[in-house]
Design brief:
Helix content: 10-25%
Number of strands: 21
Distance between the termini: 10 Å
CATH topology: Porin
Oligomer: single chain
Strand content: 25-35%
CATH class: Mainly Beta
Radius of gyration: 23 Å
Shape: globular
Length: 459
């Protein structure tokens, strides 16, 4: 497998390693492809069983997309250095919120991992290493395990996002436990992710919201953080908002947290937050009454474009815990290269699409150089030919390879069933979560020994 063209432009990361700041090719326009023709017979169905055209994909596997949890690893390091359990909970809560921040404006679908597919990421500059494996195909389950370079934390879990199409939107319901362990404090935190919904799938401007309750539990102290990711609401006033409280083991409010998962998270005294919330409610009621008088027909949320981005109104006395990193200029749409020259119009349409709304971290996830290729197992996502072809702008090749791999996977499954053998999961095993006792997938600890014999030929 060639890494030809996969590096893009490079930037220097504090002398540790050069990481690319661009993809080899911009995304293709989806304007001429009808999503409705594909999804009209699939309302209420599980989307993982539906074959989608490659033009709706982004050039990452879901295993790579999961790795974006680690973009703000500094929050874990910050928690580790704190001697106050409430401050540690603030950092962990911010880490949980930041884990979904990269989904903002990301409307491309990651490639479904093949059974046995793996992904590793070693980032000494950020202080962690990561391994993930697709451990089940039906239902699709992705298991992951990250650890600090200095053995100062472990972050692990399994994710089964149940995707459903509801006519105008696609909803990803989270399944699976997320666990963060801080050995230096002998603490473990667990939580689940909020629900993600992509609106206007058929027509109109695509937009994303996260909603639902997230409870983060410190299993040592009994403290917990109860966060609510607000749904958009009829007037769009709550879009992207996150708020909640950190409670001690007697359920007393210690501090309030608020912000937007697309922007930032603050902490403040709960009394100040409650007073501010009451004034917000009064303003909202006044707005609703005014809108009801001027507009008798309320629009459904799916029909509404998202409101203009606005900064969070900071309550006096608040402490900033986390702020999102700005995305690169070439990330989104309407980014025109200075080297366009006299390209024909159809080429301009392609270049105007940008780089899939990727963060700087996401732009680096599919990097592949000769040194890396020598040590990777043959199951690593970077070696998938359909993802590599899409990243390089070869959409016909990507589509053909995607179809070939899916057929190869079906054939392997048929052969396995005939032989009465069981699929061998290499790097994880099923077992109870050590803190919740719920069923989980646990890392077996041997990946980094680099013994990759007898791996399946999945590509």
């Amino acid at each position: 497998m060639s890494g030809d063209g996969s590096q893009g432009d490079k930037t220097q990361c504090n002398g540790v390693k050069n990481h690319r700041s661009a993809l080899p090719a911009a995304m293709f326009s989806r304007n001429n492809v009808s999503m409705w023709s594909i999804l009209k017979k699939c309302i209420g169905m599980e989307l993982s069983k539906i074959t989608m055209p490659v033009v709706f994909n982004e050039p990452l596997s879901f295993l790579q997309r999961l790795t974006e949890y680690m973009e703000h690893t500094y929050l874990i390091h910050k928690a580790n250095t704190s001697q106050d359990s409430i401050h540690r909970m603030k950092c962990v809560a911010a880490f949980a919120v930041s884990a979904v921040a990269s989904q903002w404006e990301r409307t491309g679908k990651p490639f479904n991992p093949l059974l046995g597919e793996t992904y590793e990421l070693l980032r000494e500059d950020l202080g962690f290493r990561w391994i993930s494996e697709q451990v089940s195909h039906h239902p699709p389950v992705s298991a992951f395990h990250a650890e600090g370079i200095k053995n100062d934390f472990m972050f692990h879990g399994s994710v089964y996002p149940k995707l459903k199409f509801w006519g105008k939107s696609v909803e990803a319901e989270p399944r699976g436990i997320i666990t963060l362990e801080l050995p230096v404090h002998n603490e473990a935190y667990t939580w689940t992710n909020p629900t993600c919904c992509i609106h206007n799938i058929i027509m109109g401007q695509l937009w994303i919201e996260q909603y639902g309750n997230v409870e983060i539990i410190n299993h040592k102290t009994g403290e917990r953080c109860c966060l609510t990711f607000k749904s958009c609401g009829i007037f769009g006033k709550e879009l992207h908002k996150v708020e909640g409280y950190i409670l001690d083991k007697s359920k007393k409010k210690i501090c309030a947290l608020y912000g937007k998962w697309t922007e930032c998270l603050y902490s403040v005294d709960p009394a100040m937050f409650d007073a501010h919330s009451k004034s917000d409610v009064k303003r909202s009621e006044k707005d609703r009454k005014g809108s009801a008088q001027s507009n008798n027909a309320e629009e459904e949320p799916d029909e509404m474009p998202p409101p203009e981005a606005e900064t969070v109104q900071v309550i006096p006395g608040s402490e900033l815990i986390w702020r999102i990193s700005p995305r690169p200029d070439n990330s989104g749409k309407n980014q025109i290269s200075h080297s366009l020259g006299s390209l024909p119009v159809h080429s301009l349409r392609v270049l105007l699409q940008g780089y899939y709304a990727f963060t700087s971290f996401a732009l680096q996830l599919n990097e592949l150089d000769a040194e890396m290729e020598r040590v990777l197992p043959q199951t690593d996502c970077r070696l998938r030919p359909d993802i590599r072809a899409l990243e390089n702008g070869h959409i016909d090749v990507a589509s053909a390879e995607k179809n070939r791999l899916e057929e190869k996977q079906r054939m392997a499954r048929r052969n396995l069933s005939k032989s009465n053998e069981e699929w061998k999961i290499r790097w994880f095993h099923q077992g109870p979560n050590p803190h919740t006792r719920a069923p989980d997938w646990l890392y077996n600890g041997s990946y980094w020994d680099r013994n990759y014999s007898q791996l399946p030929d999945i590509y």
